[in-house]
Protein 1
Amino acid sequence: MAKERHPLFELTAMRVREFLREKEAVFWVFIFPVLMTFALGIAFRNTAPDKTPVAIEATTGASETAQLLSRSSEITATVMSPNEAAQALRSGKVSIVVRPQNDSYDYRFDPTRPESRAARLILDDVLQRGRGRTDVVKTGEEKITEPGARYVDFLVPGLIGMNLMGSGLWGLGFTVVIARSRKILKRFAATPMRRSHYLFSFMLSRLVFLVLEVAAVVVFAWLVFNFTVRGSWLSLILITVLGGFTFSGLGLLVAARPTTIEGVSGLMNFIMLPMWLLSGTFFSSERFPQVLQPFIKALPLTALNTALRSVMNEGAALSSLWIPIAILLAWCVISFFVALKIFKWQ
Amino acid sequence: MSTQTSLDAPSATARTAQRIAVRCEGLVKRFTDVTAVDGLDLEVFKGECFGLLGPNGAGKTTTVEILEGLTAPDEGSVELLGQRWNGGGDDRALRERIGVQLQETQLAEKVTVMETVRLFRSFYKRGHSVDEVIRRVALEEKRNSRVGKLSGGQKQRLAVACALVSDPELLFLDEPTTGLDPQARLSLWDIVEKFRTRGGTILLTTHYMEEAARLCDRVAIMDHGKVIALGTPAELIESLGADQVIEFSVASALADDALKTLPAVKHLHKRGEIYALTVSEIGVALPALLAEIERQQSEVVTLTTHQATLEDVFVSLTGRMLRDG
């Protein structure tokens, strides 16, 4: 019954079993990303654009102003005392405050807030027209909601990228360090097992889970948010595999020497934290200053997120993604070989 | 083969070499604060069970891990089954021929007995079937149990099973019964004895003298990284020049000098309230002792006698108990 199989098979099977029998790990890798997609997808779902909240300071002319603004469907205006208005602006309840003067208006707003800048334009337009300004040129509008341009469409590839990073680093880092601290690595070193088999079994087991991890999020997003992958599935698979391998390599690297869980946790946070913030999982990394961009683009998670978004949202071909692919490959190969070189077996 | 040496010498050397499973010379291993192994020479013959006996911290584990090729010695040489560790591909061939149980290994808890053995089996080109090994360590009923659910003794038997999967010529066991209850210890001894009966060579470390006395053909007593005595258990006990030990306590302290000069007394050791006299003829020593206690106007509180053991050898060599560490 118990036939001898290839050590690589047995080692990989062991990885898979150990993972599946660890309930917490299953939650973090499969359930958590789905919950995250759901929560964020709901929070940022596309509804009718909100009306712009405006405060009118209660001075002479306030009621006329309020009447003027009530004609616009884009604005909800409230008359408040100057103090209340200032407070409402500070706390973000209104985007802009308008103070009617004798025959003019003063706007108070924070120009660093995008919604306030937009509010100023809308408010000004409504007031000017209400006071008799006419359009010089006739304009037409075509309103569209493009699937692929919603926040959830932006979010899903980012979550997949973040998940690949997390499960690669945690999955490998912890398993290896626990095996080292329990002297299982030392025990293996006392057998004729090939060391590369041991390390490679991690890559293979990641491959098994990677498919499920990605599928869980994509299928969920498709069912609940009507998310679609625009590019080819083959490109998507190739990029996720490359991403999975890259973070497995990094996982091996961080786990190459520490002997305690505390030690490896510190290292992992040190590596993951900048990427959580900078690599454009929840918002575009383009928002960071220009000086930082070369550094941000060289991070593996940025490269992975860029490649995933290009394929999933824009339907890009692999050939157009050679830069992020090259960045991922470089991280993957370098970290795996450095890990192999400095790996401590006891 | 065209050398001028006599015909007899090389063949005699070769014959000896063939009989030797483990040979190490001048082993030294220093750690930052301590010299764990301090110039150690050992020879283990094929087919024997050889014991490294010593207190905790004597350097037993370091020695064994050097022999197993897991730790590099600072000085000295190691030869296992006629081969040296050289850091190359030959090492893998040597690992095929030895079985190892490490003192501190805690096998993964979420996998079953059979899965664990099957994993270790897959590392070796040849060896027993998984079922056979599980049978040898008497874990058939636990084959589908998870490692985390096993008792201490069962875990230790599983560790030995992992060392036996390759049907090794040479088996290293590092404190295989430490922390086990007597029943579990007996069943492990049984496995070791069966392996030896089939012609296997065993090198085991222990700080239990009764384990060494029961299992080992020869014993090296280690202390502070050195071998301080070597021989069969019987030879070592004989070296005390005594075969009985009287242990007693008394109501009021006695003068030591008077005890040492009693007839047939070879050695006196005091541990707290307990006096231990190593004696050659109990029939002579015991009446003399009782008379002496009475002469010193004291009274016996407890008194036992036993056959001298390896523990007594260690005490007489170092003045300490094995368990004192």
Protein 2
Amino acid sequence: MENKLSYFGEVREALKTLSIGLKTTIKEFFTSKSTEQYPENRKTTLHIAKRHRGRLVFKRDENENYKCVACLMCEKACPNGTIRIMHEMITDPETGKKKRQLIDYEYDLGDCMFCELCVNACNFDAIEFTNDFENAVFDRSRLILHLDKEVYRGGSLPEVIEGGANWEIGTFNTGTKTK
Amino acid sequence: MRRLFLRNDFSGYPLRKDFNMDPERNMYSTEDDIEIDTTTEWYLTDSGDLKSVSHSLFTDDDFVVNIGPQHPSTHGVLRLQTILDGETVKHIYPHLGYIHRGIEKLCENFTYPQTLALTDRMNYLSAMMHRHALVGVIEEGMGIELSDRIMYIRTIMDELQRIDNHLLYTACCAQDLGALTAFLYGMRDREHVLNVMEETTGGRLIQNYYRIGGLQADIDPNFVSNVKQLCKYLRPMVQEYLDVFGDNVITHKRFEGIGTMNEADCINYGVTGPAGRASGWKNDVRKYHPYAVYDKVDFEEITLTHGDSMDRYYCHIQEIYQSLNIIEQLIDNIPTGEFYLKQKPIIKVPEGQWYFSVEGASGEFGVYLDSRGDKSAYRMKFRPMGLTLVGAMDKMLRGQKIADLVTTGAALDFVIPDIDR
């Protein structure tokens, strides 16, 4: 930038930019806050995107049956070896056909990098990610989950599974009370 | 020649195919990594013999200061070994590899869909663009024709990601110069960009949205209205960053004439992206090698003339406006169609070599793929955006003051996981 101002002209310009900055901060001082009160708003104004990848769960129908057939596609797709599936072959007594039976679906949340490749690999629409994000535990061994043994009902925040409170671009849900 | 990423006592060349990958032979050493102060130059004699000569990195009476690896203003674990003469920088030796994960080597053992999980973790501020490059090179190799809808959404997502990066960049510039207020303004508005993306992709930093043959999921029902609202919200806000920080006299005094690099040197050092465009080098991949629907949208390539830190800052600011322009042109016209074209369960790329580059947020990001027809790549090479920027820091800062090292680093916009891969 060519500087053609006199010494005092330069000082005047400098003071002008500084006062514009101060004016902006004063203006921002009176606009609404932008801090969301997380632990307090858990059950009221918290919004978590429905597609947020918090943890893996089995999809279950109304009778709480899962669709997994232990085809091992997800285990093979996982880059980290997060999923370990135990299965056995059982013979159907009526038809005599051999069929795979799931014994244990072990999912290590501590190893998972939430890349959704297992969901993409599944041909039976048996697994999905939910937005249950409160996964902190005191012991690493508790992160190893057995998806076929548990019936997932929304974790610690069942009301947020569908996204939780409404929210609008350009605003923050700063309050802790539902309107 | 020095080792860039691996330890000095590492033996062998891991990317060579005859490298023994036996875990027993490649145990990680817990011994101290003894740093060598010499660098080796190799040359051929007239008779064709390969000879080496050792050079010292510094002399005995040089004053050497390590900046990093845990210095907050290096934006990660980067160590700049700086030789000083009083306050003046004589030479900078960047030491990299503190978070080297060997992503390129990992890619050789992963199947193609599995490699996608890694690119988001390189420059996490350009996660979308990185994935676009990798997905693009694989799709080019397989000859997949994408639907218009996929390409439109990819372009919009790339630009949202660019805004996200540039907001963080302008915020961190302020932070590195000590202006915490401007930093918080930038981070506040970045939150809205992330919210828009999270509704569709499910991720804030690690997006995981593109996949071979399309997208992970269709855009969410509110995406179009959210993006429109975001554009409306963001436009006046950019002026606010300028008011509070960018046009400020203190910023001008700290940024002007600092870390200057002229156009010829930018080309020599491969300083792409806004840092290179600030010196007048027209290098926008979106303009000169259009991918997705960049050839259909009307936007300006920002080039400035001074090539100093101030122009780099202004280049980022003006690119935010250009990104908003691109998004506004596309958002109303997203065509209907498939968001994902079904691929075979096992993806194989035919034999051949391909290179696909995209305009990342801070430079050109390219992926080179050498396929031998398998389900995993024979060689996958990433061209990181930050490596050349860090390489050029020595040239930019020689003869300048040590306090300007932080400013130049802030204005260059590099992210360490991207450099280290």
